[in-house]
Specification:
The complex is a heterodimer of chains A (about 110) and B (about 110). By secondary structure, chain A is mostly beta strands. In chain B, strands 2, 4, 5, 9, 10 and 11 form a six-stranded mixed sheet that branches. The chains are: A mainly beta (about 110), B mainly beta (about 110). At the A-B interface, strand 5, strand 6 and strand 10 of A face strand 4, strand 5, strand 9 and strand 10 of B.
Chain lengths: ~110, ~110
C-alpha cells in the first residue's frame, strides 16, 4: 500500500491555465504539507495543515490555494500558471508531535510552457 | 535569517572510499537537525534525528553527528546503492507550528 500518493505524477500545461494536484495519505497522520522543489533541488515548504486547519503559510502567491477536505487529503490548486511555477511539488505527512519525521509522496513534476 | 548550507554540492566516490558530507546551520529556535535521503524521481526519505551537540546516530554505513553549528554525515565503505541526494533539515518553531527548513543537498555518486 502506498503511504503518501499524489496525482498526477506529471503535469504539462500552458501559461494562464488552472490546475490541481491531489494528495492522499493512509498513515493516519494528522498533519500534511506541500513543498516545492526547484530545478536546483532546493526543497521549500509552502503550506502545512493540521486536522484540516492551515497552520503554516509561507510566502506563496495567492494563485496557490491548498484545500484539505479531511485529515487524509490535501489538494493544491494553482490558478493562472506561470513559467516560474515549473517545479516538482511534493506532498508530505506526519504526526503533529513528530513533524520532523515526514513521509513524502513521489512528487508531481509540473511543467508550464 | 535561518540558513542551512550543505557541502559539497556533489561528491563522487569509489566503492569503499569513505567520506563525509557537511551541513552547517544558523538558525534561531532550533529544535533538531535531521537527515533525509532522496533518490531520483522520488520524495525524500527520513534517515536520522539529532537533537543535541555531541549526539551520534548510525544506520548501516551511515553515521550522523552534530555540533553546535554543523552536522556531518559520515559514509563508511560506501556501495553503489548509497548513491542518492542527501538532504539535511532543521526544525524551526514558528507561530503556527514546527517547520522543516532544508539545505540544498549533496548529490552522492558511488562508482564500482
Amino acid at each position: 500500500d502506498t503511504a503518501v500518493s499524489q496525482t498526477p505524477k506529471y503535469l504539462v500545461t500552458q501559461m494562464g491555465n488552472d490546475k490541481s494536484i491531489k494528495c492522499e495519505q493512509n498513515l493516519g497522520h494528522d498533519t500534511m504539507y506541500w513543498y516545492k522543489q526547484d530545478s536546483k533541488k532546493f526543497l521549500k515548504i509552502m503550506f502545512s495543515y493540521n486536522n484540516k486547519e492551515l497552520i503554516i503559510n509561507e510566502t506563496v502567491p495567492n494563485r496557490f490555494s491548498p484545500k484539505s477536505p479531511d485529515k487524509a487529503h490535501l489538494n493544491l490548486h494553482i490558478n493562472s500558471l506561470e513559467l516560474g511555477d515549473s517545479a516538482v511539488y511534493f506532498c508530505a505527512s506526519s504526526h503533529f508531535g513528530r513533524s520532523y519525521e515526514q513521509y513524502f509522496g513521489p512528487g508531481t513534476r509540473l511543467t508550464v510552457t | 535569517e535561518d540558513q542551512v548550507t550543505q557541502s559539497p554540492e556533489a561528491l563522487r566516490l569509489q566503492e569503499g572510499e569513505s567520506s563525509s558530507l557537511n551541513c552547517s546551520y544558523t538558525v534561531s529556535g532550533l529544535r533538531g537537525l535531521f537527515w533525509y535521503r532522496q533518490d531520483p524521481g522520488k520524495g525524500p526519505e527520513f534517515l536520522f534525528t539529532l537533537y543535541s551537540a555531541g549526539e551520534e546516530k548510525e544506520k548501516e554505513r551511515l553515521k550522523a553527528t552534530l555540533t553546535k553549528k554543523e552536522s556531518f554525515l559520515h559514509i563508511t565503505a560506501p556501495k553503489p546503492e548509497d548513491s542518492a541526494t542527501y538532504l539535511c533539515a532543521v526544525l524551526i518553531l514558528t507561530g503556527g507550528g514546527n517547520k522543516l527548513t532544508f539545505g540544498t543537498g549533496t548529490q552522492l555518486k558511488v562508482e564500482l
